[in-house]
Write a structure and sequence with these properties.
Chain A is α+β, with helices and mostly antiparallel strands. Chain A folds into two domains: 14-113, Phosphorylase Kinase, domain 1 (2-Layer Sandwich), CATH 3.30.200; 118-315, Transferase(Phosphotransferase), domain 1 (Orthogonal Bundle), CATH 1.10.510. Chain A has helices spanning 70-88, 120-126, 133-152, 216-232, 239-244, 251-255, 261-270, 282-290, 301-315; strands spanning 14-15, 18-26, 30-36, 42-48, 54-55, 64-65, 98-104, 107-113, 118-119, 155-156, 165-167, 173-175, 182-183. In chain A, helix 3 runs antiparallel to helix 8 (282-290) and helix 4 packs across helix 7. Chain B is built from nine helices and 13 strands. In chain B, 45% of the residues are buried. Classes of the chains: A alpha+beta, B alpha+beta.
Chain lengths: 316, 306
Amino acid sequence: MPSQANAALPPGYQLEEYRIERQISLGGFSIVYLATDKNGEPVAIKEYLPNSLALRAEGNVMPAIAEENLAIFRYGMKCFFEEGRALAKIAHPNVVRVLNFFRANETVYMVMQYESGQTLQEYIQRNKGEIGERFIRLVFTRLLNGLREVHAHKLLHLDIKPANICLRMDEQPVLIDFGAARQTLSTDGPLLKPMHTPGFAAPEQYQNARRELLGPWTDIYSIGASMYACMAATAPQAASQRLEHDQLVPAVKRWLGQYSRQLLEIIDWCMQLNYLARPQSVFALQKAIADKRRSVPKQQGTLFDNLYKRVQSLIK
Amino acid sequence: MKFTIYQESRPGRRPLNEDRVAYSYSRDALLMVVADGMGGHLRGEVAAQIAVQFITEAFQREAKPGLRDPFRFLSGVIADAHRAILGYAVDHALSETPCTTCVACIVQDATAYWAHAGDSRLYLLRRGRIRAQTRDHSRVARMVEDGLITAEDARWHIARNRIFSCLGGAGTPQIDLSEKTPLLAGDTIVLCSDGLWGPLDDAMIARAMSSGNVMQAVPALMNQADVRGGENADNLSLIAIRWESSHTEDASGGVSTEIMPLDHFTTQIEGFSRVQESAQQELNLSDDDIERAIQEINSAIRKYSK
């Protein structure tokens, strides 16, 4: 992938009925802008622009796409459509809402509701080590309602992390940035390089050849890691490193006394390296969280997990 | 009728998917069918295709909107599908007749009726336990039942894939009919090919499907079978419904047939060499495709916004 980054559309640029205010973020596949619609309401606009395939030079509007990249550029567009198509059907208070979709400048744009609050990432930075159990339960219970809706539409998020969880003023969390999302059931042609964030991505996301292992349990690992990060105030050890040398201190060992055993056990359950040992659905996880009397179902034990790690390192 | 239904068929690690699955429902009756065309035989997928199509079409002719006698329908239509496959072989001068398993289920008046030939299975799950299931038409399965070998032995038995009843085969197929089985709200019916049940055991299937959410449980169970099937994973197919009583709140993604016109059918047939098709489409996204996709997304946005 070339190191050169794409130039963003300039502030003040009129993109159809929207006015670009500023760039919010820049990823390998897209640029997200803060813009205002014709009523002056803020919206977030995501522009499909994979920088390995299409380059926009400073001062230009049209990206340059090499002839030989056109087919792959359009294949990637298909993934962008899948994201839009799935999100369009989800109207849930805890999932970012898509408002419009259009084509311009030889590429495509997705307009989303703009979430003005802070991200959970920022909240963790501001409240280092002082996030209470009540807050964690409140945020994640609601977030899981949204995630359940996402999975019901056969979509996996695949990049859940505190930076992709937005907290509205009333602490209502909203799951944002489905850029890594792929519909699980679509058969695959060539793959664009998958994205994931170390610390929050599940082990199976590091194994490109084994995409069939991805499932609800993959997002559930990231949920567990995000809860862990709320307590630790930093990202947990990356799963790829854990497979080689697991130094992650289980939540139960690290914070017993500060948080309830049940919540800590749930975090450890979500962060099992073996995907079969985690909660297999959001529903199962929600049930465990809601049931405060009972502790987590018996885990497969460390023996099994160690064995699994050894097998995994052999495969690599 | 109120139910949630989900079906999926995958090639596993085989180059060709010879499984076919379909469901169809009218206001008062639901049909589900799984056929597993036999590898080693000439054009197994043709036999499976004929069986599924033939049965689905007969259902749509006769269920208006209910079937007079579901058992008579099932036994008759499966025997007819067998003859249709033989006829195809004659018409196309095939040296060997293709053949296929078949399991079909009708739900009508909150009662399930099913019939099968071969080793594609039906499970009826109630409160996480297997309430009823088909008996495979294979000698190995009968040996397990008679206590001659264990289930674990059967998994590796050299003749585990040999069946003594199928559609299109040399003899007249043996078609087993179920009992007439009243359904309770929350019951789950699972139809599957041996590519699915082979790598798993009954308890795993019961556990996976007892969550009640077939939309999630089906893909998850397919993944499990796919992974455990390993390098030789056979074609695998699964249809599952969760039956809702007519009084429950609207389950998300569920189907309610109450408002369907009397002569209307909703039909899904799956398993047509999907892999090759989609691979080609993906590399040829035309301007029209892009416009269509954008229109589709925008109409979905409008539809789902309040």
